[in-house]
Amino acid sequence: MNTSRPVSRRHFLAATAASTAVLGMPRVLTAQKSDRQLVVGEEEHRYEVQHNWARLPDPFTWQTTHNVAVDADGLVYVIHEGRANLPDHPSIFVFDPKGRYVRSFGNRFQGGGHGIEVRTEGKDQFLYVCAYQQVKAFAKLTLEGELVWEKYAPMDSGVYRPKEDTVREQRWGRDAFMPTNFAFLDDGGFLLADGYGSFFIHRYDKDGNWVSKFGGPGDGQGTFNTPHGIWIDRRPGRAPRIAVCDRAHHTLQCFSMNGEYQETLTGYGLPANLDTWKGLMVVPELHARVSILDEQNRVVARLGDDVERVTRLEKDVRANPDRWIDGKFVHPHDACFDADGNIFVAEWVATGRVSKLRRLG
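The structure assignment produced for this chain is given below.
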């Protein structure tokens, strides 16, 4: 696979579907109506599907939804990629647990909004946001949207072209800065995945100063082709480690907390991001499904699976909501748990879609 440039999301459906071979053989999970509920999964991994769960008031409009995060009070934060030609439109929207609109902000990320995470620091919570395209920045915000700091390409890393930290233009390449997602470290620092740009994972201290990097472009086992999502896997029964969605390789790569390669997990279709709850890990896959892994990283559920139709049988399903099927996903781009194990799924679709999977098991 050519690693000289990222796989365009507009052409990702041409990626080989052979990558969707499963890790082991989970049960076939089908959507079913039960007491007027739309239910996916079986036994302890059953969820009620609530598509278009969030309600957006006028004058706002849904745009391409990218990522989702939940704070300690259960409020849900959704970031749009947004449109550069709508600079006055917010890119971040906040909803209560029932999907009711609370507030919005984040105009500065319009046209490039991507990663969003909530972090508790002492008694306070903050949003960490990154944006690609022409924005090329990452920032720390209060939960109300006030800017704490904003930063650009880490020129000390030695991987970016001159002035990459000052020139705001959309440009792809391994010397471009196009950050996609965060993971948080115990010492107050964080990791930032440059998933569309250099393909490096950057390490920062608690004040947002660049410290080091690992990864870079390559064929796997420590190098990447679109390291799109990143997470610190702190599930019980193992030492904490870094997990990276090596999206265009259709794998998850695992590293020590020092960035040393450990292993590769195969069997995904463009994995986009990660989150954990108790012993489970959720993996949203752009190839039309959401996977659930247990403590041993065995696939125990694949929810909303519509891989065959979306990747092989029909073209451009994402742009035609009338062809979306209840209980099925089109292109899950991010997913996260709340405190009760419910899952929120943001899909990379033209009109935006955020679904709630209410845990029943």
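Interim note for the steering committee: The domain at 9-359 is CATH 2.120.10.30 (Neuraminidase). Helices lie at 307-313.
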